[in-house]
Amino acid sequence: MLSLQNQIVLITGASSGIGAACATVFASAGAKLILAARRQERLQQLANSLVEKYHSTPEQIHLLQLDVRDRFAVESAISSLPPAWSEIDILINNAGLSRGLDKLHQGEFTDWEEMIDTNIKGLLYLTRYVVPGMVSRDRGHVINIGSIAGYQTYPGGNVYCGTKAAVRAISEGLKQDLLGTSVKVSSVDPGMVETEFSEVRFHGNTERANQVYQGVTPLTAADVADVVFFCATRPSHVNINQVILMPVDQASTTLVNRRR
Ligand code: NDP
Ligand code: 8X3
């Protein structure tokens, strides 16, 4: 198992859910963390809890208030990292969201744009600005958080599923383009995970969000972070290309076992 001690790990979307859980598991292994998201106060709370829990020091956590949709902000954030933080070992492209569950012909343009700009273009920007350094050092690992939605479309999922299918293709393409270097690429693709995801999808409608998980034992963010950690700690000659993980209660995007 590769040691993560003092490895520099950049996690996008670290203010909540899977990203925050990744921060926790990587902090517990002694990694240095760059935590990125728009909600700076949430990042600060997470950093405080990691300092308390794992005795991480301020030298081990660097916060980046960043909207991944803004290409120039991404470029500036990466190019102006202090020297001690600039050699990123692991990039976890996790920031993402769904908006709405409308039929395609009734969909909201702003929802589509937010999903495409975050899930596809944001992921591409981070990759474009971070991976050249990995290539020149001939070491590094990009871990993209895809989804079962990238393999199976469901009614109303149209554009969100399209963005995750794009993530799947981009991960495959990046792996091909990095052949001949030591840089690894993995895609971790979960089914239902209980996070703020559904609340964001339904624009803050908590009641509707709760219905998604009713009668089901979904994955937790920590379950997904475990798999990300597994991918990141394989021996240097091993690349985990794709992992699909689902709750026992879920067989496909639409086939879910709900207890009454
Ligand atoms: P959460 O809503 O809990 O977390 C999403 C994270 O993404 C937040 O930290 C949010 O931070 C960040 N984010 C959203 N937009 C931006 C942006 N423009 N710039 C920077 N950060 C942004 O959901 P999850 O943890 O569930 O989602 C994480 C990833 O997992 C997503 O890519 C999602 O598609 C994927 N996924 C989720 C599943 C689920 O069932 N929950 C299943 C399969 C995949 P902030 O708002 O502070 O910017
Ligand atoms: C999130 C899982 O099935 O809600 O990617 O799209 S799903």
UniProtKB/TrEMBL annotation:
Q: Does the keyword Transcription regulation apply?
A: no
InterPro entries named in the record: NAD(P)-bd_dom_sf, SDR_fam
Which molecular-function annotation in GO is an example for this chain? Answer: oxidoreductase activity, acting on the CH-OH group of donors, NAD or NADP as acceptor
**Record keywords: Transmembrane helix included?**
no
Give the UniProt keywords, A-Z.
Oxidoreductase
Similarity annotation: Belongs to the short-chain dehydrogenases/reductases (SDR) family.
Name the record gives this protein: NAD(P)-dependent oxidoreductase
